[in-house]
Amino acid sequence: MTALLSVEGLSVAYGGATALDSVSLSVAAGETVALLGANGAGKSTLLKALLGLVPTRGPARGSVRFDGADLAGLATERRVRLGLGYVPEGRRVFAGMSVRDNLEVAGLDDRRERARDVERIFALFPDLARKSGEGAWRLSGGQQQMLSLGRAMMGRPRLLLLDEPSLGLSPKLADELFAAVRAIAASGTAVLLAEQSAVRALSAAPRAVLLRLGRVVRDGPSAGLTEAALHDAFFGV
Length: 237
Ligand code: ATP
What we know:
With 237 residues, the protein is α/β, with parallel strands linked by helices. The chain contains nine helices and ten strands. Strand 1 and strand 2 form a beta hairpin.
């Protein structure tokens, strides 16, 4: 299987502190991969590095290839245009804009195509459809997370990068959100899903990569992931 995303030997340091230490991983077209690890393991840093939002450095700063193209030196906007979608931690929506406008501004230039994409997202999230004309500030936290995911989908990404989508959500809303992620994955979009909540992420992802202190400590089928391996990645010394 050729990789859609291929990361090799990627290292990131903040000041003198290493956040990612020679990380390698790949995601195939249409594949969903869970990126698991404790608070501070480097999950957010990895997603940001894929988007060019943190400088990669050091002697082995590594390479990131997307659909065959080397992303080194490319601005974030170019990476998004190549097909990376990003849902950052903490639901960044435009609070003062309507739900619909939040989606529209993230959409394609073609009006008809854009309108079609908005309808697709409303079908995925009926709550958003019901509140399409309301200001985004009126949405609940869970609905804002849905809107943030919807915004990322408006760019028709081939790989969706999700940073802790269930953080702070009630179990019911987290379930709803993961159902949408599964539907997005089933429609053929590849997903890299960073999560601390392993159980939910594993239910959506056939493969899991475990990060601990900036290093990949396991990469393989979710089905073969033992409690002991998870415990070691999250709490091991
Ligand atoms: P979280 O669940 O808290 O987001 P994470 O697995 O995503 O955890 P990162 O946020 O990538 O982890 O952090 C990895 C390491 O880099 C941690 O030690 C963190 O303290 C450090 N770090 C992250 N961002 C910065 C920053 N802007 N400046 C300095 N250090 C940072």
